[in-house]
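Tip: read the tokens left to right.
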């Protein structure tokens, strides 16, 4: 313990050590302490001085007074004789007593203070005794208070418990009364249901239904109670009784509506009569409000039990049976009247009948929702029966219709006028009508496909052309003369504001834009016209996949018919006429099928020209030729390029019409080559065959065809043919194509073929003939031929009919035929 105190004092001594303080202060704290110390020192110094002066003065005076008093008393006793000093011993004793008295006098203050303290101690002990007594009394009082408080609390708790028990008993009584009330409701409900004045539209009836629902729900949710199953049965009997009243009233009201809707003679009104709508719908709507209110109450309870669902189903069945009993004869009679009125006009009959059933569906839907709020499955069955009358009426007309135009128009009516314009705008109300229309549309499309197959076989493939169908080029010349006459008449009406010479020029008479009278729809070859008409009807009538299959068959038939017609023209007229007839109609076919926007593909055949056109336009731009061409010109330009990638593209795409057009153009180009420079081509064929089969060329000059005079004959004959027959070709192109750009595109490979042939001739002459022999042959250079062709093309012949008659069709002017070359 002493060690701890020592450590404490040592720590206290070191707390403000200047070198290593235990509790170092900051400079600000030290500054503050110094300021406080200075202030305290000033105050304490003043107070101490005053206090010390006062204390010293008092103590000196008291001491002096006490000392004087003591000294006076001691000397007084000595002077009075009470004390006598006779010896030193007495003096010393006196002096000791005096000294003791002086000491006592000096401690008097302390003794007085001690006495005062002892007095205070006595007072405190006395007060402590009084406090102890008071505490004892308070403790006793507290114990008495606790006893009373406990008694009061116990009484309060007993009262609260009694109140709780009273509340529990009251709640138990109420609960028992509530539970018993569900059992006691049976007698009340049974009595009310037996009342003859009870109405299904009154508030009391709705209250009875509510109480029955609550009682049945309560009994079913508390099966542990006694006799709950018995009371459930009783309440269900009451519920069936109440719902039977509703069922009877609904049936009676509907039958009354039907009787009121009939005419005085008892017959059903037809929709064609002016008052039919009032009878068929107005009489029913008179009872709609009362029944709608009652049905709303039943519909709100239809999930509470099977009785309500059965009642609602029975009411729906009664409604639809009465409506069908009333409306079916009227609809049948109206449809029969329409069938009689439009017996030969199937399109008008279909349109009117569909519109009539459409209106019936709208009216029936609205009338149903004036009676009921929830949709019924029987509504669809009812609508199906009414719409089925439309199907029964139209189907016989559909399956006996043979005309593509009629069938296509029926498809348009059903798909566009009915589905797109009406059904899609209100699909829920017209769902049954939609199903019937789809079935009719399917039947019409099936019939259309069947008749299209027959039409293709009979009117396209089996078409037998008459003489006027293949009268080419006479038909074109006749149309050209008609166009010139019309143009002259138009020129005369212009007056002097237009020059006659400029109007009457050939280029003005025929604008060569592809819109000449020869390109009119009526001038097309009949199978082509029929094929395009058939495609146009099918395109807007059947789905895409079906149309692709049919279109391939139609296009194949059209191409076969055109090829057959071209073969007949070749037999009766000239090869040029046959080829140009074929090319012209294939271009027409290609242009007319472009808007259909389908692939025309079945298995390995297709006829989608969009990529061909894009490739052709890209090829033009690549070569720097920016032409303002039509789709046919672009296609023709693309087909005649002759590049390997073009041929590969056609092989990959498998386009039937494009391949046929390309092969026809190639045949025309090859024929024009023989027709214009046949002798040169014969010579080149013989020379190429000889060079291919013989490595030793020393015997070349000994061959008859290689003699310079024979070669000179080939060259002169070819130049003669070129000058005399080129106008024939040019005139034919002008007559058939009637478009300068198309003529140029088709003739350009012919020109290239001619120039290439003379280029090959020039190479052979330079290689195998001497300069003297080449001078004897006098073959023109390729550049000369190119300039000659360009000059001749600038001049457009107006008529070369006589030249066409003089020109033989066979281009074989050489002495030896080509086929004899070994």
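Filled-in amino acids:
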């Amino acid at each position: 313990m002493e060690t701890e105190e020592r450590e404490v004092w040592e720590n206290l001594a070191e707390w403000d050590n200047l070198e290593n303080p235990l509790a170092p202060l900051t400079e600000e704290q030290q500054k503050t302490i110094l300021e406080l110390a200075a202030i305290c020192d000033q105050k304490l110094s003043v107070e101490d001085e005053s206090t010390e002066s006062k204390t010293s003065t008092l103590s000196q005076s008291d001491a002096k007074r006490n000392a004087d008093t003591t000294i006076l008393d001691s000397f007084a006793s000595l002077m009075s004789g009470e004390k006598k000093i006779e010896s030193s011993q007495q003096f010393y004793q006196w002096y000791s007593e005096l000294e003791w008295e002086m000491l006592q006098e000096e401690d008097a203050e302390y003794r007085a203070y001690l006495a005062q303290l002892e007095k205070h101690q006595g007072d405190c002990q006395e007060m402590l005794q009084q406090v102890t007594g008071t505490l004892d009394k308070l403790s006793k009082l507290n114990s008495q208070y606790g006893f009373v408080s406990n008694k009061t609390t116990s009484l309060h708790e007993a009262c609260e418990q009694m109140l709780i028990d009273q509340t529990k008993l009251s709640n138990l009584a109420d609960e028992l009364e509530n539970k018993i009330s569900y059992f006691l409701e049976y007698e009340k409900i049974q009595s009310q249901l037996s009342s003859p004045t009870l109405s299904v539209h009154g508030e009391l009836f709705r209250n009875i239904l509510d109480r029955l629902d609550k009682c049945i729900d309560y009994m079913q949710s508390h099966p542990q109670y006694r006799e709950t199953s018995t009371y459930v049965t009783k309440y269900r009997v009451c519920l069936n009784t109440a719902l039977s009243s509703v069922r009877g009233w609904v049936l009676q009201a509907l039958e009354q509506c039907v009787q009121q809707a009939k005419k005085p003679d008892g017959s059903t009104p037809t929709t064609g009569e002016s008052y039919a709508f009032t009878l068929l719908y107005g009489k029913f709507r008179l009872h709609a409000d009362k029944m709608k209110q009652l049905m709303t109450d039943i519909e709100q309870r239809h999930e509470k039990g099977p009785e309500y669902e059965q009642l609602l189903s029975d009411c729906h069945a009664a409604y639809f049976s009465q409506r069908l009993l009333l409306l079916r004869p009227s609809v049948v009679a109206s449809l029969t009247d329409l069938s009689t009125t439009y017996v030969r006009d199937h399109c008008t009959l279909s349109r009117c009948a569909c519109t009539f059933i459409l209106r019936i569906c709208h009216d029936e839907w609205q009338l149903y929702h004036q009676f009921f709020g929830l949709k019924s499955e029987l509504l669809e069955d009812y609508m199906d029966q009414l719409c089925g009358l439309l199907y029964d009426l139209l189907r016989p007309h559909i399956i006996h219709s043979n005309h593509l135009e009629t069938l296509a128009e029926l498809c348009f009516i059903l798909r566009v006028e009915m589905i797109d314009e009406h059904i899609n705008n209100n699909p829920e109300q017209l769902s049954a009508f939609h199903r019937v229309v789809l079935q009719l549309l399917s039947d019409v499309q099936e019939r259309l496909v069947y008749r299209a197959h027959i039409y293709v076989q009979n009117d396209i493939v089996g078409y037998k052309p008459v003489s006027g169908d293949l009268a080419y080029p006479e038909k074109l010349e006749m149309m050209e003369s008609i166009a010139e006459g019309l143009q002259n008449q138009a020129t005369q009406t212009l007056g002097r504001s237009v020059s006659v010479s400029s109007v009457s020029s050939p280029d003005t008479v025929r604008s060569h834009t592809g819109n000449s009278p020869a390109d009119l729809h009526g001038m097309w070859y009949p199978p082509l016209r029929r094929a395009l008409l058939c495609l146009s009807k099918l395109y807007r009538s059947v789905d895409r996949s079906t149309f692709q299959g049919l279109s391939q068959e139609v296009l194949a038939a059209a191409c076969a018919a055109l090829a057959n017609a071209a073969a007949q023209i070749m037999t009766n007229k000239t090869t040029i006429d046959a080829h140009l007839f074929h090319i012209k109609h294939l271009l027409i076919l290609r242009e007319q099928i472009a808007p259909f926007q389908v692939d025309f593909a079945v298995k390995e055949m297709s006829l989608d020209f969009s990529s061909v056109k894009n490739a052709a336009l890209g090829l033009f731009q690549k070569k720097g030729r920016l032409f303002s061409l039509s789709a046919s010109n672009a296609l023709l330009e693309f087909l005649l390029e002759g590049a390997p990638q073009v041929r590969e593209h056609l092989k990959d795409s498998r386009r039937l019409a494009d391949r046929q057009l390309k092969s026809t153009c190639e045949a025309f180009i090859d024929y024009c080559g023989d027709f214009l420079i046949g002798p040169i081509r014969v010579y080149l064929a013989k020379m190429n065959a000889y060079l291919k089969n013989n490595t030793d060329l020393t015997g070349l000059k000994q061959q008859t065809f290689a003699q310079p005079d024979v070669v000179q004959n080939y060259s002169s004959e070819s130049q003669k043919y070129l000058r005399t027959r080129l106008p024939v070709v040019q005139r034919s192109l002008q007559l058939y194509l009637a478009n300068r750009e198309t003529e140029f595109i088709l003739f350009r490979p012919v020109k290239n073929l001619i120039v290439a042939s003379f280029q090959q001739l020039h190479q052979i002459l330079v290689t195998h003939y001497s300069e003297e022999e080449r001078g004897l042959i006098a073959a023109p250079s390729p550049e000369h031929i190119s300039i000659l062709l360009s000059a001749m093309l600038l001049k457009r012949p107006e008529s070369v009919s006589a030249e066409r008659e003089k020109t033989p069709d066979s281009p074989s002017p050489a002495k030896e035929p080509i086929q004899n070359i070994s």
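DSSP finds 28 helices and no strands in the chain. The two ends are 148 Å apart (CA to CA).
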